[in-house]
Amino acid sequence: MASFIKQISFRWSDLDPNFHVRHSAYYDFGAQHRIEILEELGLTLKVMQTQGFGPVLFREECVFRKELKLSDKIFIHTKTSKMKADASRWSIIHEFRKEDDTLCAVITVDGAWMDTKLRKLASPTPEIAIEALSIFPKSDDFVGL
């Protein structure tokens, strides 16, 4: 598998005054897709809550290349671009592509796992997080940290 792919649909509320998709909607779609993927891999919100850890982001950046409009048919492609061997730190990219494969935007997030009880980075990385991220498709330019 080259990436996790999902078709997304825009709502009227996702538009800005210029009638194209507002900048913050991209981040919302990226966050939703990450959680859906983790759930699919068995790393559910309930598991994270029970085991006392969750993802924390250090950086989230979007590069906008082509505008998106309400009627566009868009697919979000998600994969890892960087990761430590123990999955304690990672980067995930989301590519927003039109049905003709035109790249419209790229979100990059850098993150880690946080112990929600101690409120600091989880150490060691929970085994289920390592397992989930090991299944994640990797970008062509993937870098091991």
The string of secondary-structure elements, in order, is EHHEEEEEHE
How much is the radius of gyration in Å? Answer: 16 Å
User: Total number of β-strand segments?
Assistant: 7
Q: Could you tell me how far the N terminus lies from the C terminus, measured between alpha carbons in angstroms?
A: 22 Å
- Helix share, percent: 10-25%
Mean pLDDT: 94
Overall spatial form: globular
How does the helix and strand content classify structurally? alpha+beta
Low-pLDDT runs of 5+ residues are: none
The portion of residues forming beta strands comes to 35-45%
Q: Largest sheet at a glance?
A: 7 strands, mixed
- DSSP summary: helix tally: 3
Explain this structure.
This protein has 145 residues and is an alpha+beta fold. Helices cover 23% and strands 41% of the residues. It is built from three helices and seven strands, in the order E-H-H-E-E-E-E-E-H-E. A hairpin with a 4-residue loop joins strand 4 and strand 5. The protein is globular, with a radius of gyration of 16 Å. The two termini are 22 Å apart.
